[in-house]
Amino acid sequence: MSLSAPAVHRGIAVGAFSAALLFGSAAIAVADPPANCTAADLARTASGVSNATADYLFNHPDVNDFFTGLRGQDRDAMSANTQNYLDANPSVKADLQGIRQPLVDFKGRC
Description:
Blueprint lengths: L4 H26 L8 H21 L1 H8 L6 H14 L1 H20 L1
InterPro entries: MHB, MHB_sf
GO molecular function: heme binding
Organism: Mycobacterium pseudoshottsii
């Protein structure tokens, strides 16, 4: 029984494809996840940012009053009012960005 050239080529292609799937997925499975990217790490980072934000707001009553006053506004109004406030108060914007930076770093790393 002899095989035609197209049948041989198909067999080689299927074999190569199967090997690529087998060994390619094995390489992916063996790769270590980035360090400190677990759900627990995210929770710890988020809680640290949350605590730092609360401390900041308690120590800056005017900022706390502004953000408290957003309650009840629709999403578009809240977003526009927040942007206007932060544009008018660049030091507050910088402070809050600094507080939030660990979450930004986490997202970039993980």
